[in-house]
Amino acid sequence: MAATAPKGSVAVLGAAGRMGTAIIRVMSELPDLKLTAAVEHDKSDKLGQDAAQVAQVAGAAGGGGVKIAPGVPVAEAAAVWIDFSSPEATARHAAAAAAAGAALVVGTTGVTAEGKEALAAAARSVPVVFAPNTSVGVTVLLRLCAEAARLLGPGFDLEIVETHHRRKRDAPSGTALRLAEAVAEATGRDLSKDARMVRQGDVGPRTPREIGIQTLRGGDVVGDHTVFFLGDGERVEITHRASSRETFARGALRAALWVAGRPPGLYDMRDVLGL
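^ thats the sequence. predicted structure below, dont judge the formating
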């Protein structure tokens, strides 16, 4: 934790984005957390504007007092940084949080291998929660699907279908990939070999070890994920549907409350929920 940052202080990186504004709105309802810094990329048209007003926080007409700034927060700005910015910025933000001594919650999806390495490096000196989906429900979904895959066994084929809004850039979603990892781990599969993300033309019969991952995009869908367990004569479907980004915001803020003061390490939402 940054030495001079007050307890409960939060910086939001990606403050003008869809998730950043949702986090700021939900945070305004929580007595134990306070927005003390807001950051956007240096070409954002929201720079210099009041973060609470940009997020349309009720009662913020007089101004919340936190202006959206470029770059990264100063070291004493916040005890916890919440990053929902861009995959390209992840490595830079992780290094800056480590240098500042700030705990970090990262919910950005599509993080590159370089970004993941930077998060692991930062976690050697500060606590880092990395979760491509911060929903409490999705965290439980991961546990349920892993257990279902283990109990149902090799007689059931595994398929994952995810749907998101038309603006989402990465595919498959980080959540779909994490679900695939969870069922692969539970059944002794190697996802690097067994994932099947494209089927077109004469692909031949389905192999027993395949984990299909299919992507749909359109409309304003916040996020739907279904894991299919397809057996002979029966099937099981486990679905999570998000109807509001506040679902992810509440999970991220729960993670922010949990991670402050933790020892350095790389955590995920399962740690936050005690799973």
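The mean pLDDT is 93.
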